[in-house]
Structure formats: structure tokens, C-alpha cells
């Protein structure tokens, strides 16, 4: 049906506009033909770039399909490109195949299939354009989940352990060590902070990114930010929050 629709468009049938030739292609009278046959190994050389497995998939894509009369189809099916080209040139009347011959004269290759797929896709879009304001039933109207990540989330996921010491990355503050509490807060010098940046500001006296400021282990030096990033990579979540920048994140 799709290939018949493309043939009609190539004959000048555009919406309510009648083709100059006056005839649409006969419905259901042609057979679908693989230009490069499914049993391509017999007559086609392997591609220099793609693997045999990639070609096996490619021969079933839209750019490798066309319409032929059933008699012509049976005479050239599974044959080499030279034979198919001669059969199309001498006996076929479809504009669809005239364009195919024009696009690939000496060879019908993997790239020929990909190029024709792009061309046919453009024709499909013109014929069956999306109505204005239409929404696909396959598209999700639900917004992607966004949330603020807290230390308590990392504790709950096992990415951090309660009681771990948080050491400032800057040497001049390395003696001011915080402790991660079971409720996700940071205890530092008798004060508790709900966010890493709040604790970092307490230490430095200026705005600074707390996720980058604190090391979880002063020897291996994984920062809170690194642990957070590794955790987020395992989730389908967009991070939202004001601590995801590098403000004041200097040595």
C-alpha cells in the first residue's frame, strides 16, 4: 500500500490533484521485490564496511523494496544486479523503478539502500503528513521526573554509609571534618546541616558547592559529587537543584 501510494505521487496524484497520466497504479497487482535479494551471498560481494549480519538486516529495510509485476518478479528474483537492472530497463513501467535505476546504475550497495530509504521516507512524509495539532498516542504526555537528590537518598541506596567522615578537599580546611548522620544530615562542630553546601559554607564562609567540597575518603578521594553521579547513572532521573554547579569549586 505504501509503495503504491508513492508510485501514485510520482505519477502526479497529490491530494485532490489528478495525475497527468490519468491512471493510478493497479492495486494489489504487483509483488514486493527485494532489490538486493535475501540470498545475496550468491551474487553480491560482501560490503567493505558493514558486516554480513548488518547486510542481512538491511535487505529488509524500506529502501531495498520495490514493486514488480508478478511475471517480472519471478524472472529476476534472487538474481544478480545486472540481471535485475536489465529486466527493469527493458520491461518495467513504474516510475518508482525508473528513479531506482537512476539512483544506482553500476551497483546496488548497502549505501544505495540507505540513500533510497531516506528518499522514500521524504515521500511518505509528504503523502501522509501529520495533521496540525495531532498528538501521537504512542508519545508520553507525562513530564520526565525531576527531583532534588538528598544525602538521605544515597544512604537509602547504600551508596553512602551513616557515620562516614566528610573531609574538606582544601588543605587549609582538612581538619574540619563532618560526619554523615543516619537521617542524611551532616554533623560538623556541634552543628547539623541538611545540605552539603550549607556545611561547606559554614566551613569556608562563602558560597561553595558542597558536593564537590567534601571527600568521603581522603585517601582514594571520591567526592560526594562523584558518588552522586554514579548513583544517578543507574536511575532514569533528571537532577534538579541549586547544588549542581561549580560555583566556588576551586582548589
Mean pLDDT: 84
In terms of DSSP E residues, the strand content is: 5-15%
> What gyration radius follows from the Cα positions, in whole Å?
32 Å
Lateral arrangement of strands in the main beta sheet: 7-6-5-4-8
- Low-confidence residue ranges: 241-251
Task: Label the structural class.
Answer: alpha+beta
Q: Give a short account of the largest sheet.
A: 5 strands, antiparallel
State the end-to-end distance.
66 Å
Helical residues, percent:
25-40%
Whole-number tally of structural domains: 2
Please provide the count of β strands: 9
SSE arrangement, N to C: HEHEHHHHEHEEEEHHEHE
Question: Any overview of this molecule?
Answer:
By secondary structure, this protein is α+β, with helices and mostly antiparallel strands. It folds into 2 domains: 2-127, no CATH class; 146-239. Helices cover 36% and strands 12% of the residues. It is built from 10 helices and 9 strands. It has helices at 2-10, 52-58, 70-76, 81-91, 95-103, 110-127, 151-157, 196-204, 210-213, 224-233; strands at residues 30-34, 65-69, 146-147, 165-168, 178-180, 186-188, 191-193, 214-215, 238-239. Strands 7-6-5-4-8 form a 5-stranded antiparallel beta sheet. Strands 1-2 form a two-stranded antiparallel ribbon. It has a two-stranded parallel ribbon with strand order 3-9. The longest helix has 18 residues, at 110-127. The protein is elongated and about 90 Å long. Residues 241-251 have low confidence and may be disordered.
Amino acid at each position: 500500500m505504501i509503495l503504491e501510494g508513492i508510485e501514485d505521487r510520482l505519477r502526479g496524484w497529490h491530494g485532490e490533484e489528478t495525475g497527468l497520466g490519468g491512471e493510478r497504479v493497479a492495486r494489489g497487482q504487483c509483488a514486493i521485490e527485494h532489490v538486493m535479494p535475501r540470498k545475496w551471498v550468491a551474487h553480491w560481494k560482501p560490503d567493505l564496511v558493514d558486516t554480513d549480519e548488518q547486510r542481512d538486516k538491511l535487505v529488509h529495510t524500506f529502501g531495498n523494496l520495490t514493486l514488480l509485476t508478478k511475471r517480472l518478479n519471478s524472472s529476476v528474483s534472487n538474481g544478480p544486479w545486472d540481471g535485475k537492472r536489465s529486466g527493469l530497463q527493458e520491461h518495467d513501467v513504474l516510475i518508482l523503478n525508473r528513479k531506482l535505476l537512476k539512483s544506482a546504475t553500476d551497483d546496488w550497495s548497502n549505501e544505495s539502500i540507505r540513500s533510497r530509504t531516506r528518499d522514500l521516507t521524504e515521500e511518505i512524509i509528504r503523502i501522509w503528513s501529520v495533521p496540525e495539532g495531532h498528538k501521537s498516542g504512542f508519545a508520553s504526555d507525562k513530564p520526565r521526573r525531576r527531583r532534588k537528590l538528598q544525602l538521605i537518598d544515597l544512604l537509602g541506596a547504600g551508596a553512602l554509609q551513616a557515620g562516614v567522615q566528610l573531609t574538606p578537599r582544601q588543605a587549609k580546611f582538612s581538619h574540619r571534618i563532618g560526619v554523615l548522620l543516619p537521617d542524611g544530615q551532616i554533623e560538623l562542630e556541634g552543628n547539623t546541616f541538611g545540605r552539603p553546601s550549607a556545611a561547606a559554607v559554614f566551613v569556608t564562609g562563602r558560597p561553595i558547592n558542597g558536593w564537590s567540597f567534601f571527600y568521603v575518603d581522603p585517601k582514594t578521594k571520591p567526592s560526594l559529587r562523584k558518588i552522586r553521579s554514579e548513583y544517578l547513572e543507574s536511575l532514569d532521573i533528571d537532577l534538579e537543584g541549586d547544588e549542581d554547579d561549580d560555583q566556588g569549586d576551586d582548589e
